[in-house]
Amino acid sequence: MDTDLVIRAQQGDEGAFASLAIVCGDRLHAVAHRILRDIDLAEDATQQALLAIWRDLPQLRDPARFEAWSYRLLVRACYAEGRRTRRWTPTLRLLPTDEPAATDATGAVHDRDQLERGFRRLSIDHRAVVVLHHYLDLSIDEVAESLCVPVGTVRSRLHHAMRGLRAALDADLRPASREVI
Amino acid sequence: MRTDRDTTRIVRSWLEDGRTALPDHILDAVLDQVPATRQRRSNWAARRFAEMNSYAKLAVVIAAVVVVAVVGYNLLPSRGGPSVGGPQVTPSPSTSPEATATPAPSPTLAVAFPPAGQLAVGRHTFTEDDLEFSLAFSSSGWVSQGYGTDVQGGTIKKGSFESPDAAWILIWSIDGVYTDPCAHVAGPVLSGSPADLAAAVAGLPGAAVSGPTDTTIGGHPAKHVTLVYGADAGCAPNVYYPWYNDLACGADDPCFRWLSAINSTLRVWIVDVDGTHFWIEAETYQGASPELDQEIRDMVASIQFE
Questions:
Q1: Is the ipTM reported for this complex over the cut 0.90?
Q2: What residues in A contact B7, CB-CB < 8 Å?
Q3: CATH 1.10.1740.10 residue ranges for chain A
Q4: What is the pTM of this model?
Q5: Is residue B46 domain-resident?
Protein backbone atom coordinates (compact mmCIF):
# COMPACT_ATOMS: atom_id res chain seq x y z
CA MET A 1 0.00 0.00 0.00
CA ASP A 2 1.29 3.45 -0.90
CA THR A 3 1.74 5.15 2.46
CA ASP A 4 2.05 8.49 0.74
CA LEU A 5 -1.51 8.09 -0.50
CA VAL A 6 -2.59 7.20 3.01
CA ILE A 7 -0.90 10.24 4.49
CA ARG A 8 -2.38 12.57 1.90
CA ALA A 9 -5.82 11.12 2.47
CA GLN A 10 -5.34 11.55 6.21
CA GLN A 11 -4.74 15.21 5.53
CA GLY A 12 -8.04 15.48 3.70
CA ASP A 13 -6.93 14.96 0.11
CA GLU A 14 -10.06 13.54 -1.51
CA GLY A 15 -8.22 12.62 -4.67
CA ALA A 16 -5.74 10.58 -2.72
CA PHE A 17 -8.57 8.83 -0.94
CA ALA A 18 -10.23 8.05 -4.27
CA SER A 19 -7.02 6.40 -5.39
CA LEU A 20 -6.87 4.47 -2.14
CA ALA A 21 -10.46 3.34 -2.51
CA ILE A 22 -9.77 2.11 -6.01
CA VAL A 23 -6.72 0.23 -4.84
CA CYS A 24 -8.28 -1.45 -1.83
CA GLY A 25 -11.97 -1.52 -2.82
CA ASP A 26 -11.87 -4.83 -4.68
CA ARG A 27 -10.04 -6.56 -1.89
CA LEU A 28 -12.35 -5.23 0.79
CA HIS A 29 -15.36 -6.23 -1.24
CA ALA A 30 -14.00 -9.71 -1.80
CA VAL A 31 -13.47 -10.15 1.92
CA ALA A 32 -16.90 -8.78 2.78
CA HIS A 33 -18.55 -11.08 0.26
CA ARG A 34 -16.83 -14.09 1.73
CA ILE A 35 -17.70 -13.16 5.28
CA LEU A 36 -21.32 -12.24 4.68
CA ARG A 37 -22.06 -14.73 1.88
CA ASP A 38 -24.46 -12.25 0.31
CA ILE A 39 -23.59 -9.88 -2.49
CA ASP A 40 -25.97 -7.11 -1.47
CA LEU A 41 -24.84 -7.16 2.13
CA ALA A 42 -21.23 -7.23 1.02
CA GLU A 43 -21.72 -4.16 -1.16
CA ASP A 44 -23.36 -2.30 1.71
CA ALA A 45 -20.62 -3.33 4.12
CA THR A 46 -17.87 -2.32 1.72
CA GLN A 47 -19.49 1.04 1.14
CA GLN A 48 -19.81 1.67 4.85
CA ALA A 49 -16.26 0.54 5.48
CA LEU A 50 -14.82 2.83 2.82
CA LEU A 51 -16.68 5.80 4.27
CA ALA A 52 -15.50 4.88 7.76
CA ILE A 53 -11.95 4.69 6.43
CA TRP A 54 -12.22 8.19 5.04
CA ARG A 55 -13.84 9.53 8.19
CA ASP A 56 -11.39 7.98 10.64
CA LEU A 57 -8.19 8.09 8.63
CA PRO A 58 -6.77 11.01 10.63
CA GLN A 59 -6.89 8.79 13.69
CA LEU A 60 -4.71 6.11 12.14
CA ARG A 61 -1.41 6.50 13.88
CA ASP A 62 0.84 4.50 11.61
CA PRO A 63 0.08 4.81 7.88
CA ALA A 64 2.05 1.64 7.26
CA ARG A 65 -0.67 -0.23 9.11
CA PHE A 66 -3.41 1.01 6.84
CA GLU A 67 -4.22 -2.38 5.40
CA ALA A 68 -4.72 -4.13 8.71
CA TRP A 69 -6.68 -1.17 10.00
CA SER A 70 -8.92 -1.17 6.91
CA TYR A 71 -9.81 -4.81 7.50
CA ARG A 72 -10.77 -3.94 11.05
CA LEU A 73 -13.22 -1.33 9.84
CA LEU A 74 -14.51 -3.68 7.17
CA VAL A 75 -15.22 -6.44 9.66
CA ARG A 76 -17.00 -3.93 11.86
CA ALA A 77 -19.16 -2.99 8.90
CA CYS A 78 -19.85 -6.67 8.33
CA TYR A 79 -20.96 -6.96 11.94
CA ALA A 80 -23.34 -4.09 11.39
CA GLU A 81 -24.76 -5.62 8.24
CA GLY A 82 -25.03 -8.98 9.95
CA ARG A 83 -26.92 -7.48 12.86
CA ARG A 84 -29.19 -5.52 10.58
CA THR A 85 -30.31 -8.63 8.79
CA ARG A 86 -30.17 -11.12 11.59
CA ARG A 87 -33.89 -11.12 12.18
CA TRP A 88 -34.47 -12.27 8.64
CA THR A 89 -32.34 -15.33 9.00
CA PRO A 90 -34.43 -18.47 9.27
CA THR A 91 -33.71 -20.89 12.03
CA LEU A 92 -32.34 -24.11 10.70
CA ARG A 93 -31.89 -27.42 12.33
CA LEU A 94 -30.62 -30.73 11.14
CA LEU A 95 -32.75 -33.79 10.95
CA PRO A 96 -31.50 -37.22 10.03
CA THR A 97 -32.64 -38.73 6.82
CA ASP A 98 -32.05 -41.96 5.07
CA GLU A 99 -30.93 -40.46 1.77
CA PRO A 100 -27.73 -41.98 0.42
CA ALA A 101 -24.48 -40.31 1.16
CA ALA A 102 -22.69 -38.35 -1.53
CA THR A 103 -20.77 -40.22 -4.16
CA ASP A 104 -17.31 -39.29 -5.31
CA ALA A 105 -18.67 -37.79 -8.49
CA THR A 106 -20.79 -35.33 -6.61
CA GLY A 107 -18.51 -35.01 -3.61
CA ALA A 108 -17.17 -31.60 -4.52
CA VAL A 109 -20.63 -30.19 -4.92
CA HIS A 110 -21.66 -31.67 -1.62
CA ASP A 111 -18.56 -30.27 0.02
CA ARG A 112 -19.34 -26.79 -1.14
CA ASP A 113 -22.94 -27.08 -0.18
CA GLN A 114 -22.05 -28.37 3.23
CA LEU A 115 -19.36 -25.73 3.66
CA GLU A 116 -21.79 -22.99 2.74
CA ARG A 117 -24.22 -24.19 5.38
CA GLY A 118 -21.55 -24.76 7.95
CA PHE A 119 -20.02 -21.35 7.31
CA ARG A 120 -23.35 -19.59 7.66
CA ARG A 121 -23.75 -21.13 11.06
CA LEU A 122 -20.58 -19.43 12.23
CA SER A 123 -20.62 -16.02 13.85
CA ILE A 124 -19.18 -13.05 12.01
CA ASP A 125 -16.26 -13.21 14.45
CA HIS A 126 -15.41 -16.71 13.37
CA ARG A 127 -16.05 -16.13 9.68
CA ALA A 128 -13.75 -13.12 9.68
CA VAL A 129 -10.89 -15.10 11.11
CA VAL A 130 -11.33 -17.87 8.56
CA VAL A 131 -11.48 -15.44 5.64
CA LEU A 132 -8.55 -13.30 6.72
CA HIS A 133 -6.38 -16.31 7.42
CA HIS A 134 -7.37 -18.72 4.69
CA TYR A 135 -8.40 -16.32 1.93
CA LEU A 136 -6.05 -13.38 2.44
CA ASP A 137 -3.30 -15.59 3.80
CA LEU A 138 -2.72 -13.31 6.75
CA SER A 139 -0.73 -14.82 9.56
CA ILE A 140 -2.33 -15.35 12.95
CA ASP A 141 -0.52 -12.28 14.23
CA GLU A 142 -1.70 -10.22 11.30
CA VAL A 143 -5.28 -11.36 11.78
CA ALA A 144 -5.04 -10.40 15.43
CA GLU A 145 -3.80 -6.97 14.52
CA SER A 146 -6.47 -6.53 11.89
CA LEU A 147 -9.29 -7.53 14.18
CA CYS A 148 -7.90 -5.81 17.23
CA VAL A 149 -8.05 -8.98 19.27
CA PRO A 150 -5.42 -11.09 20.97
CA VAL A 151 -3.55 -13.80 19.16
CA GLY A 152 -5.01 -16.36 21.52
CA THR A 153 -8.48 -15.29 20.58
CA VAL A 154 -7.69 -15.62 16.89
CA ARG A 155 -6.32 -19.09 17.44
CA SER A 156 -9.35 -20.19 19.39
CA ARG A 157 -11.78 -18.71 16.90
CA LEU A 158 -9.96 -20.33 14.02
CA HIS A 159 -9.89 -23.64 15.83
CA HIS A 160 -13.57 -23.44 16.61
CA ALA A 161 -14.49 -22.34 13.09
CA MET A 162 -12.46 -24.99 11.33
CA ARG A 163 -13.83 -27.65 13.63
CA GLY A 164 -17.33 -26.51 12.71
CA LEU A 165 -16.54 -26.57 9.01
CA ARG A 166 -14.94 -29.95 9.30
CA ALA A 167 -18.01 -31.24 11.06
CA ALA A 168 -20.12 -29.81 8.28
CA LEU A 169 -18.03 -31.57 5.69
CA ASP A 170 -18.07 -34.81 7.61
CA ALA A 171 -21.81 -34.62 7.85
CA ASP A 172 -22.09 -35.89 4.30
CA LEU A 173 -19.88 -38.82 5.15
CA ARG A 174 -22.24 -39.90 7.84
CA PRO A 175 -25.86 -40.81 7.19
CA ALA A 176 -26.96 -37.84 5.21
CA SER A 177 -28.80 -34.96 6.79
CA ARG A 178 -31.23 -32.49 5.47
CA GLU A 179 -31.85 -28.96 6.63
CA VAL A 180 -35.37 -27.93 7.29
CA ILE A 181 -36.85 -24.72 8.43
CA MET B 1 -13.54 -38.59 8.45
CA ARG B 2 -11.43 -35.83 6.95
CA THR B 3 -8.16 -34.63 8.33
CA ASP B 4 -7.50 -31.05 9.32
CA ARG B 5 -5.34 -30.71 6.24
CA ASP B 6 -8.17 -31.92 4.02
CA THR B 7 -10.52 -29.44 5.61
CA THR B 8 -8.11 -26.56 5.17
CA ARG B 9 -7.54 -27.41 1.55
CA ILE B 10 -11.24 -27.64 0.81
CA VAL B 11 -12.02 -24.43 2.68
CA ARG B 12 -9.29 -22.53 0.89
CA SER B 13 -10.48 -23.75 -2.46
CA TRP B 14 -14.06 -22.86 -1.59
CA LEU B 15 -13.06 -19.35 -0.52
CA GLU B 16 -11.42 -18.73 -3.85
CA ASP B 17 -14.82 -18.78 -5.48
CA GLY B 18 -16.87 -15.66 -5.36
CA ARG B 19 -16.96 -12.09 -6.45
CA THR B 20 -13.90 -9.94 -6.06
CA ALA B 21 -14.50 -6.73 -7.99
CA LEU B 22 -16.23 -3.86 -6.27
CA PRO B 23 -19.04 -2.65 -8.53
CA ASP B 24 -18.48 0.81 -9.93
CA HIS B 25 -21.74 2.12 -8.55
CA ILE B 26 -20.60 1.34 -5.01
CA LEU B 27 -17.30 3.09 -5.48
CA ASP B 28 -19.10 6.03 -7.09
CA ALA B 29 -21.51 6.21 -4.17
CA VAL B 30 -18.63 6.32 -1.72
CA LEU B 31 -16.75 9.00 -3.56
CA ASP B 32 -19.93 11.04 -3.95
CA GLN B 33 -20.34 11.04 -0.17
CA VAL B 34 -16.75 11.90 0.68
CA PRO B 35 -17.03 15.67 0.21
CA ALA B 36 -19.95 15.76 2.62
CA THR B 37 -18.33 13.47 5.17
CA ARG B 38 -16.20 15.23 7.72
CA GLN B 39 -13.05 13.53 8.80
CA ARG B 40 -12.56 12.96 12.48
CA ARG B 41 -9.41 14.54 13.69
CA SER B 42 -7.58 12.83 16.48
CA ASN B 43 -8.91 14.21 19.72
CA TRP B 44 -6.14 12.25 21.42
CA ALA B 45 -3.54 14.55 19.98
CA ALA B 46 -5.59 17.60 20.73
CA ARG B 47 -6.15 16.60 24.29
CA ARG B 48 -2.57 15.74 24.92
CA PHE B 49 -1.34 18.95 23.38
CA ALA B 50 -3.72 21.02 25.41
CA GLU B 51 -2.70 19.36 28.60
CA MET B 52 0.93 19.77 27.92
CA ASN B 53 0.42 23.45 27.57
CA SER B 54 -1.54 23.66 30.72
CA TYR B 55 0.67 21.60 32.87
CA ALA B 56 3.86 22.35 31.27
CA LYS B 57 6.31 20.81 33.57
CA LEU B 58 4.02 18.41 35.16
CA ALA B 59 3.99 14.91 34.35
CA VAL B 60 1.11 14.43 32.15
CA VAL B 61 0.01 11.07 32.76
CA ILE B 62 -2.92 10.94 30.77
CA ALA B 63 -1.99 9.26 27.78
CA ALA B 64 -0.43 6.80 29.66
CA VAL B 65 0.96 4.03 28.73
CA VAL B 66 0.88 0.76 28.63
CA VAL B 67 -0.19 -2.29 28.31
CA VAL B 68 -2.09 -4.61 26.99
CA ALA B 69 -2.20 -7.87 27.23
CA VAL B 70 -3.44 -10.79 27.46
CA VAL B 71 -5.31 -13.48 27.36
CA GLY B 72 -6.82 -16.04 28.81
CA TYR B 73 -8.05 -19.30 28.66
CA ASN B 74 -10.12 -20.15 25.85
CA LEU B 75 -13.42 -20.98 27.27
CA LEU B 76 -15.22 -22.25 24.31
CA PRO B 77 -18.20 -24.13 25.55
CA SER B 78 -18.55 -27.83 25.36
CA ARG B 79 -15.13 -28.56 24.07
CA GLY B 80 -13.33 -31.32 25.68
CA GLY B 81 -9.77 -30.26 25.19
CA PRO B 82 -7.77 -27.79 27.13
CA SER B 83 -8.47 -24.18 26.62
CA VAL B 84 -6.58 -22.59 23.87
CA GLY B 85 -6.41 -18.91 24.27
CA GLY B 86 -3.94 -17.03 26.10
CA PRO B 87 -3.54 -13.81 27.44
CA GLN B 88 -4.03 -11.19 25.21
CA VAL B 89 -3.26 -7.81 24.77
CA THR B 90 -5.70 -5.27 24.56
CA PRO B 91 -6.84 -5.05 21.41
CA SER B 92 -4.67 -3.57 19.93
CA PRO B 93 -4.79 -4.40 18.49
CA SER B 94 -2.02 -5.26 18.04
CA THR B 95 -2.50 -7.65 19.79
CA SER B 96 -0.86 -10.38 20.84
CA PRO B 97 1.73 -10.35 23.39
CA GLU B 98 4.12 -11.18 20.64
CA ALA B 99 2.84 -8.40 18.50
CA THR B 100 3.12 -5.80 21.17
CA ALA B 101 6.56 -6.93 22.00
CA THR B 102 7.90 -5.62 18.76
CA PRO B 103 5.76 -2.68 17.89
CA ALA B 104 6.45 -0.57 14.90
CA PRO B 105 7.51 2.83 16.09
CA SER B 106 5.01 5.53 15.51
CA PRO B 107 6.27 8.86 14.37
CA THR B 108 3.77 10.63 16.58
CA LEU B 109 4.83 9.00 19.81
CA ALA B 110 7.77 9.62 22.03
CA VAL B 111 7.63 6.74 24.42
CA ALA B 112 10.13 4.87 26.47
CA PHE B 113 9.17 1.52 27.88
CA PRO B 114 11.38 -1.34 28.91
CA PRO B 115 11.97 -3.34 25.76
CA ALA B 116 10.64 -6.85 25.53
CA GLY B 117 12.63 -9.12 27.77
CA GLN B 118 13.51 -9.97 31.31
CA LEU B 119 13.46 -7.18 33.87
CA ALA B 120 16.20 -7.20 36.46
CA VAL B 121 15.47 -6.71 40.13
CA GLY B 122 15.52 -3.02 40.89
CA ARG B 123 13.77 0.12 39.79
CA HIS B 124 12.77 0.58 36.18
CA THR B 125 11.76 3.84 34.62
CA PHE B 126 8.96 4.42 32.18
CA THR B 127 8.50 7.58 30.20
CA GLU B 128 5.47 8.89 28.44
CA ASP B 129 5.88 12.33 27.01
CA ASP B 130 6.86 14.51 29.91
CA LEU B 131 5.82 12.01 32.50
CA GLU B 132 8.40 9.79 33.98
CA PHE B 133 7.59 7.25 36.62
CA SER B 134 9.30 4.21 37.99
CA LEU B 135 8.39 0.86 39.45
CA ALA B 136 10.48 -1.19 41.86
CA PHE B 137 10.85 -4.88 41.07
CA SER B 138 11.77 -6.88 44.13
CA SER B 139 12.07 -10.29 42.52
CA SER B 140 13.21 -11.81 39.27
CA GLY B 141 10.93 -13.36 36.71
CA TRP B 142 9.19 -10.22 35.53
CA VAL B 143 9.15 -9.78 31.79
CA SER B 144 8.34 -6.71 29.76
CA GLN B 145 6.19 -7.27 26.73
CA GLY B 146 7.31 -3.96 25.35
CA TYR B 147 5.19 -1.05 24.31
CA GLY B 148 2.22 -1.34 21.99
CA THR B 149 1.84 1.79 19.97
CA ASP B 150 -1.68 1.01 18.92
CA VAL B 151 -2.93 0.83 22.45
CA GLN B 152 -0.40 3.24 23.83
CA GLY B 153 0.58 0.87 26.52
CA GLY B 154 2.59 -2.11 27.49
CA THR B 155 2.52 -5.16 29.64
CA ILE B 156 4.72 -6.49 32.40
CA LYS B 157 4.05 -10.08 33.23
CA LYS B 158 5.21 -12.79 35.52
CA GLY B 159 4.59 -16.28 34.29
CA SER B 160 3.28 -17.55 31.02
CA PHE B 161 -0.06 -16.23 29.91
CA GLU B 162 -1.14 -19.83 29.55
CA SER B 163 -0.14 -20.59 33.10
CA PRO B 164 -2.90 -20.65 35.71
CA ASP B 165 -0.71 -18.84 38.20
CA ALA B 166 0.37 -15.96 36.00
CA ALA B 167 -0.07 -12.29 36.68
CA TRP B 168 0.63 -9.10 34.82
CA ILE B 169 0.45 -5.39 35.12
CA LEU B 170 -1.05 -3.17 32.47
CA ILE B 171 -0.57 0.54 32.27
CA TRP B 172 -2.62 2.53 29.82
CA SER B 173 -5.29 5.18 29.84
CA ILE B 174 -8.94 4.41 30.24
CA ASP B 175 -11.72 6.65 29.01
CA GLY B 176 -14.84 4.79 29.93
CA VAL B 177 -16.49 1.69 31.29
CA TYR B 178 -18.93 -0.67 29.65
CA THR B 179 -22.40 -0.54 31.10
CA ASP B 180 -23.15 -3.97 29.66
CA PRO B 181 -19.83 -5.78 29.33
CA CYS B 182 -21.33 -8.89 27.78
CA ALA B 183 -23.34 -7.02 25.15
CA HIS B 184 -20.47 -4.59 24.63
CA VAL B 185 -22.52 -1.53 25.39
CA ALA B 186 -20.08 1.20 26.26
CA GLY B 187 -20.83 3.91 28.74
CA PRO B 188 -19.87 7.51 28.06
CA VAL B 189 -16.35 8.79 28.05
CA LEU B 190 -15.52 9.77 31.60
CA SER B 191 -13.43 12.86 31.66
CA GLY B 192 -14.09 13.60 35.28
CA SER B 193 -12.17 12.76 38.39
CA PRO B 194 -10.57 9.43 39.22
CA ALA B 195 -13.38 9.03 41.71
CA ASP B 196 -15.91 9.06 38.87
CA LEU B 197 -13.95 6.47 36.97
CA ALA B 198 -13.46 4.33 40.05
CA ALA B 199 -17.17 4.46 40.79
CA ALA B 200 -17.96 3.35 37.26
CA VAL B 201 -15.51 0.48 37.55
CA ALA B 202 -17.00 -0.56 40.86
CA GLY B 203 -20.42 -0.61 39.22
CA LEU B 204 -19.51 -3.22 36.64
CA PRO B 205 -22.06 -6.03 36.65
CA GLY B 206 -21.11 -9.64 37.13
CA ALA B 207 -18.18 -9.02 39.42
CA ALA B 208 -17.52 -9.19 43.11
CA VAL B 209 -16.26 -5.70 43.81
CA SER B 210 -14.22 -4.36 46.64
CA GLY B 211 -13.83 -0.62 46.82
CA PRO B 212 -13.26 2.01 45.73
CA THR B 213 -10.93 2.70 48.58
CA ASP B 214 -8.69 5.69 49.06
CA THR B 215 -4.96 5.28 48.90
CA THR B 216 -1.85 7.23 47.97
CA ILE B 217 0.57 6.40 45.18
CA GLY B 218 3.71 8.35 44.56
CA GLY B 219 2.45 11.03 46.85
CA HIS B 220 -0.74 11.51 44.89
CA PRO B 221 -4.25 10.56 45.95
CA ALA B 222 -5.59 7.45 44.28
CA LYS B 223 -8.58 5.14 44.17
CA HIS B 224 -8.25 1.39 44.30
CA VAL B 225 -10.88 -1.09 43.14
CA THR B 226 -10.63 -4.86 43.17
CA LEU B 227 -12.84 -7.05 41.05
CA VAL B 228 -13.19 -10.80 40.86
CA TYR B 229 -15.18 -12.22 38.00
CA GLY B 230 -17.05 -15.38 38.70
CA ALA B 231 -18.59 -17.95 36.46
CA ASP B 232 -21.90 -16.12 36.68
CA ALA B 233 -20.63 -12.96 35.01
CA GLY B 234 -23.07 -13.58 32.19
CA CYS B 235 -20.66 -14.39 29.41
CA ALA B 236 -17.28 -15.94 28.80
CA PRO B 237 -14.31 -13.92 30.03
CA ASN B 238 -12.92 -13.23 26.60
CA VAL B 239 -16.12 -11.50 25.54
CA TYR B 240 -16.57 -9.61 28.80
CA TYR B 241 -15.38 -6.06 28.12
CA PRO B 242 -15.02 -4.00 31.29
CA TRP B 243 -13.44 -0.76 30.06
CA TYR B 244 -12.06 0.96 27.02
CA ASN B 245 -9.84 3.66 25.67
CA ASP B 246 -11.59 5.31 22.77
CA LEU B 247 -8.64 7.45 21.86
CA ALA B 248 -6.05 4.89 21.06
CA CYS B 249 -7.87 3.16 18.26
CA GLY B 250 -10.41 5.75 17.20
CA ALA B 251 -13.80 6.81 18.36
CA ASP B 252 -15.55 4.07 16.47
CA ASP B 253 -12.97 1.49 17.18
CA PRO B 254 -12.08 1.65 20.83
CA CYS B 255 -9.34 -0.28 22.43
CA PHE B 256 -11.02 -2.32 25.05
CA ARG B 257 -10.01 -4.74 27.70
CA TRP B 258 -11.43 -8.18 28.10
CA LEU B 259 -11.00 -10.73 30.77
CA SER B 260 -8.64 -13.60 30.66
CA ALA B 261 -10.16 -16.23 32.87
CA ILE B 262 -12.94 -16.86 35.29
CA ASN B 263 -12.01 -16.04 38.84
CA SER B 264 -9.20 -13.76 37.75
CA THR B 265 -8.67 -10.89 40.10
CA LEU B 266 -8.32 -7.46 38.62
CA ARG B 267 -6.88 -4.66 40.65
CA VAL B 268 -7.22 -1.14 39.37
CA TRP B 269 -5.54 1.95 40.70
CA ILE B 270 -6.47 5.38 39.41
CA VAL B 271 -4.10 8.08 40.53
CA ASP B 272 -4.92 11.76 40.49
CA VAL B 273 -1.71 13.31 39.26
CA ASP B 274 -2.30 16.98 39.52
CA GLY B 275 -5.65 16.92 37.86
CA THR B 276 -5.18 14.16 35.38
CA HIS B 277 -5.60 10.48 35.98
CA PHE B 278 -3.04 7.77 35.75
CA TRP B 279 -4.43 4.29 35.39
CA ILE B 280 -2.64 1.10 36.27
CA GLU B 281 -4.20 -2.32 36.52
CA ALA B 282 -3.07 -5.81 37.40
CA GLU B 283 -4.61 -9.17 36.76
CA THR B 284 -3.79 -12.35 38.60
CA TYR B 285 -5.12 -15.73 37.68
CA GLN B 286 -6.92 -17.81 40.20
CA GLY B 287 -3.86 -19.94 40.76
CA ALA B 288 -1.53 -17.05 41.48
CA SER B 289 -0.09 -17.09 44.94
CA PRO B 290 -1.02 -14.56 47.61
CA GLU B 291 2.64 -13.61 47.64
CA LEU B 292 2.51 -12.65 43.99
CA ASP B 293 -0.60 -10.61 44.58
CA GLN B 294 1.14 -8.84 47.44
CA GLU B 295 4.21 -8.29 45.29
CA ILE B 296 2.10 -6.54 42.70
CA ARG B 297 0.53 -4.32 45.32
CA ASP B 298 3.98 -3.49 46.64
CA MET B 299 5.16 -2.64 43.14
CA VAL B 300 2.28 -0.26 42.60
CA ALA B 301 2.92 1.28 45.98
CA SER B 302 6.52 1.79 44.92
CA ILE B 303 5.61 4.01 41.98
CA GLN B 304 7.42 7.30 41.96
CA PHE B 305 6.52 10.06 39.60
CA GLU B 306 9.65 11.94 38.60
A1: no
A2: 162, 165-166, 169
A3: 1-89
A4: 0.46
A5: no
